[in-house]
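Appendix B, record 7
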Amino acid sequence: MVERSIDGTDGDEGAEGQPREGLYDSSRSPDEQRDRLRNGELPVAVYGLGKMGLPLAAVYAETTGNVIGVDVDPAVVETVADGESHVVGEPGLDELVARQVGAGRLAATTAGAAAAHTARIHVLIVPTLLDDENEPNLTTVESVADDIAAGLAPGDLVIAESTLPPGTCRDVLRPHLASESGLSTDAFGLAFCPERTSSGTALRDIRGQYPKVVGGVDSESTRAAAIVYDELSANEVHPVSDATTAEAVKVFEGIYRDVNIGLANELGRLADELEVSVREAIETANDLPMCQLHDPGPGVGGHCIPYYPHFLLERTDEPMDVTRTARRVNDGMPAVVVERLERELEETGTDLAAASVVVLGVTYRPGVEETRASPALGVIDGLLERGADVAGVDPLVDPSEHGARAVTIDDLPAEAFDAAVMVTPHGAFDRIDWEALEPMVVVDGRDAIDLSATAHREYDLAGSSDGRPPRGDERGGETGRTVSTPTNATTDGRTDV
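Structure tokens (predicted):
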């Protein structure tokens, strides 16, 4: 590993005080550039050590041996500096971070500008959120760009992995970096290389589960970024025409999934009227390769799919009616779940306003400690608005922070609920002994449980995959299906920053 410091006092110059050559516009051969990347002569700074940033920094350290991770949260930096991971539910990450920090290949700091002085490759992976008007908020991205600009040197390469509205690298980041650094726009490289990573499989995905898309603001930026990811990834590197195209690839992937899920949810809502299992119909239709409908469910959560459509909806002149409709359908699914529950309770003579309801699962996805845009939040809010007494169970987060009285799985037999709603089927819910619970109405939004042999009144949103319509008892008899916790990969969303 090449010696480097975080304060920028060394690492900026090579032999005999000459400026160190970067990867962008390098006069060295491609093989020499790859060697310098692998042996740590091109220090890397990764800005953002969140759910995707820390795995990315660890893989960069594994590959190059010379990485500084930057984060604004001192607690995160302290944890990583101690060789530990603060990210929950990411197989192999704890061990990889400990190994890389212990070997001196990965360090962490809150001093972004100082890290930028040391680094020759700058990787930006912080979230792009939405403001109150659903406009993309680039404040965090621009703040990181300020830090990078403070240490940006000729020949440096800046790589954005944060999902960005198409045109951001060209129209925002490039002029911003040039203005704040005092460099001309052709003195440094800038490329967009979208992360294609899912929580729970981040290391696998970063190391090469999918082809890596790279697109630069100029051809030299694309070439330099392709060298970097050809070393990081075991899969092919797919260069595209420019950074804006690469940005569009990422946003289009998310919009496709949102629209597909919106269609599945719209069809799923027909299950009651048609008296069929829409899930069975979808699975059977998907036998044809030209039909690949996603799974219906109680909504779309996480910091990816619900957000990316707005990267275009609020920034383009095209009406994008299909995309807008899908967003409306998916945003409305928690209310549909509450309406279905209210109807089922009425069938038993119970008023939702006087009912006690337990919501099973608060995070947006099983095994992932993330509640952003989780459908469960809409379900909880809808139940509270109708006057229900709402409890919540989740093994990863505290339901009381989201408006529901917190109970545990072990508490359930001692409670007397009128209803339960399965929103997020964590594996821990396999421990629930349904026969030990007081009979109740159960709305299963994920086709995750089979209560046909119990005294509970079960309603399966969109029906069950084994062919039972939403009210399974209307066809009579048990189906004898084998139930396992679904991955719901298409509805949960591939994780991003």
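Remarks on this record: The longest strand covers residues 212-216. Confidence is low (pLDDT under 50) at residues 1-5, 7-18, 474-497.
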